Amino acid sequence: MQIKVITGEEREKAFACPKPPEVIDKQKLPVRYHVEDFDVKDRPQRFLEAFAAILKHTNYRLALDHYIRVSAKCSRCTTNCQVYLATGDDDDIPCKRSELLLSVYRRHFTIAGVLKGRLTGNIGLTDEHIQEIADSFWNCTACRRCILECPMGIDHGMITHLGRYILSEIGITPRALVVSTREQLLGATGNTSAIPVPALIDTLEFLSEDMEEEKGIEIPFPIDQEGAEYLFLPAVSDFMMEADTLMGNAAVFRATGDSWTVGTGYYDGINYGLFYSDHVLEKVLLKIKAEAERLKIKKILIGECGHASRSAKFFYPAYCGGKNALPVINILEYTHQVWKEGRLKLDPNVITERVTYHDPCNIARPGWIVDQPRELLKAFCRDYVEMTPSGRDNICCGGGGGTVSIDEIRPYRTAIGGKAKAEQIRATGAKYCVAPCANCKKQLKELMEDNNVDCEIVGLHDLLYKAIIFEGAKNPVNEEEKVQDK
Amino acid sequence: MQAWIEFGQGPLFRLCFVLMILGLIRIFILTIIGMVEALNRNTDKIVPYRDLIQKTLMWLFPIKHLWTKRPFYGLISVLFHVGLLIVPLFLAAHVLMWKNSVGFAWFSIPRGLADWLTIIVIVTGIVLFLMRASSKAGRALSRKQDYIWPLLLVVPFITGYICSNSAIGPAAYQLMMMVHVYSANLIMLMIPFTKIAHCILVPLSQLVTAISWKFPAGAGDMVIETLGYKEYPTWVKKPRLETPVELKVKEEINAE
């Protein structure tokens, strides 16, 4: 992958600060995202206290000790970071970004570092260094593509995660994420988009009616069904923004007849904890656990959302019972499985336009969901093309790691974070780009708009909904026949 | 000078060698202990060993991976490592020395091969140094030890090559041998305390990362308890600093 470094003009636009200088002055935080006011006094000390507390109760010390010993600074990660390739700034090299935190660890939490600091009169962590970390760690999209290229096996994504966790404990976290999380954990609606239950039920009923009209068959959204096999948790924003995806999900279940349900106690898959705090991560997963227990669910089914899927799949066992935890699957896995079993029939003549597939980092990087959506798409899309690179080695949409929710940094996301992706999609010439992830969808839509690429961003189930065949119902109209009719 | 060389080849070599081995064993065991502790603390103890072994082997023998990105750098780097590992262990003269100092030894490689490998190490070591020094990203990342290591590592190879291949006078030979022996001892001594520790730690990297990603249950609560927050810390609760309006309200209440 070769992309051009941004020009000076683009850089100015991308890095323009949306905040008034007096706010930056007051918070002593020259970052481009909004942060709620918090103590500025003694920040280095509080940072170190938070760091120490986290090290005491978690396993990060193991990783940090290992990483400071093996890091060889070979600069191979430069070939894989789409942010560095776009900016060309040395500070954006994944290994250098990690060094910001590793140097603090080395100086304050290893014997050799403390001794060396005393001997050389190094005063240690300064507020300027914290400001640098706060700026740099939220420029990273946490896509973890750099780890594919690290011969030493250093996971820079984990260091970014840890750095943000420490920052969050001293009050430095993008306001957009904190506000959503506050509503999710302490608010009345209990979800990040603040959708109340009556509105949710209304939406689902409306969608059901809509589908019945279109397909001539009743397609329900089961609500609060005790003992159902699957508890369905999409990114909650889908209920407002991605109705087509939800309709596709419901249609698949209508076709297979498996029991599933949306729970009114908790219906949000989003977990910003994955981006900035283990504490939030755990609290949100415990909410899922409580809802699954209330409804006596057998499996947890996450909708089309990358980070929701990863946070549930890989951290649900960690917080909710280890081996005995409920299995977590993604809707793409489910749909692929039932299609393979022959329980889902798809019309290969409906989608005739060129389609390409964008791998959400959170589900593709671990090699978890890579082939399943491709097999599905190839089954019902006539003109399917791949991006290069793709699969486990995919390029991030540019809005990963929670940055997509920070509206004030949109210029950065679409000019730098997503630059490589925009070129990639443009090169395929596809009409539809399938992105089975709420975050990717939002980012890619903005990316297409800001970079003038003519491509419609859809979910996999959006397309599937058009092609699904129900026996005894109105089948989808063949597009070619439609043209001939005219 | 001969006595110094013999001291360097004998007692000092044994000391440095033992310190290197002990140092490496220490960090290896510390890492293993760390992993066991972490697994004990975790609720989720499932580790995907197969996938991890595959990834580890892929990096230990990066034959397939070498050509995808920066193939020249990959090739140079692999050649450097191969020579670096084989010559000190399997050169005939070294095998003899191993036998004399540690008591047992193994097979040796032919002289011609050893010479070629030595030249490869010298050339690739210098190329690696130049690549680091000439690339902007390399310079931005490098610490002192990153520049010193490739150069330090080729010193015993250069001197060793000269000693065994050129017809130099006895004085020059002794000087070269002296540099050869003492630089090699210095390298061994420094390995456990610098980035070269990766020689023993890299096989554990994937496992360390996988285990560290498994977070222990309840850690978040314990962290905020340690930090002295009551229930939820700042990222959920209202911030500790009061806004001007809140301050005004407070003042009014106090005044009443």
TrEMBL record, chain A:
Pfam families: CCG, Fer4_8. Residues 73-154 form the 4Fe-4S ferredoxin-type domain. One of its GO terms (molecular function) is 4 iron, 4 sulfur cluster binding. Gene3D superfamilies: Alpha-helical ferredoxin. It comes from the Bacteria. Residues 355-445 form the Cysteine-rich domain. SUPFAM superfamilies: alpha-helical ferredoxin (SSF46548). Signal peptide: none annotated. InterPro entries: 4Fe4S_Fe-S-bd, 4Fe4S_Fe_S_CS, Cys_rich_dom, Helical_ferredxn. Keywords: 4Fe-4S, Electron transport, Iron, Iron-sulfur, Metal-binding, Transport. This is (Fe-S)-binding protein.
TrEMBL record, chain B:
It comes from candidate division LCP-89 bacterium B3_LCP. Keywords: Membrane, Transmembrane, Transmembrane helix. The keyword Electron transport does not apply. This is Nitrate reductase. The chain crosses the membrane at residues 12-36, 72-96, 116-135, 147-168, 180-204.
